[in-house]
């Protein structure tokens, strides 16, 4: 219970708050001028946020929070419920890891990946108690492992097991949200926990856990922003999303040169301890890049792995769930 309270106390408003202002639900008529230009002051973007991405905190810290349109924020514990909200039209855009878009695509959700970035692989971790006898990925066979279904940690865990020659049905997955997973780990109800930052850093620093295996050598490190088809089909909302994605890229660049300042603001706005926030920031710099053939192929590989393991109901073609109209915002490296 102590561990559960610890995680819950540092989590921002994890009950979903659906924005009441009109966003892409509203007709373009009020925002699109007779000449076809968009009056962004008449647009509200409904943005999903989660503790791991800290988008609202990121924009604020980088001085990109004052936008010509309104932003209505909703908070989520993980990517899958956020994409459910985007699919339903309750949210227009949100940032997630590599697995949530795949599960959404398998469910034939009305979503598109609209941008990609790297943020380091060390924050992806399969953590165990400090005194756990587990010392290698091969020892995970037969173990109870907590993971959030459809999350980036789910993809990481699958990759680790595959490389170790362990089939998915040779472990006992415990599908838990982060607060419940930390409690399960600290009370010994699970042997390991597959998770992402900042929860990885929290587990290390506040629950005395250690990383059995990180994402290095297992995952591409890509994360994505995903938008709803309805939002993308609105000229006014799409114009606001273009501006927002450009702001996010500038904010990422700012973080890379102001890590300590970002960690301080991130901690203040999310309630995370500063040491946890700084650990997360120092895991690796942001690197925005286009949704090019290589990025799409890498995500397709993750999707195929889930399908081959029988963890999604059908194979998906990631290109069908990708919108490259914003690629010009992210010059190729």
Structural features:
alpha/beta, 12 helices, disordered N terminus, 333 residues, five-stranded mixed β-sheet
Question: What can you tell me about this protein's structure?
Answer:
By secondary structure, this protein is an alpha/beta fold. Helix content is 38%, strand content 18%. The chain has twelve helices and eleven strands. The chain has helices at 2-9, 55-61, 79-88, 100-106, 152-163, 178-186, 199-206, 229-232, 235-257, 259-270, 274-282, 293-308; strands at 44-50, 70-76, 93-96, 111-118, 125-129, 144-147, 172-175, 192-195, 209-214, 222-228, 287-289. Strand 1, helix 2 and strand 2 form a beta-alpha-beta unit.
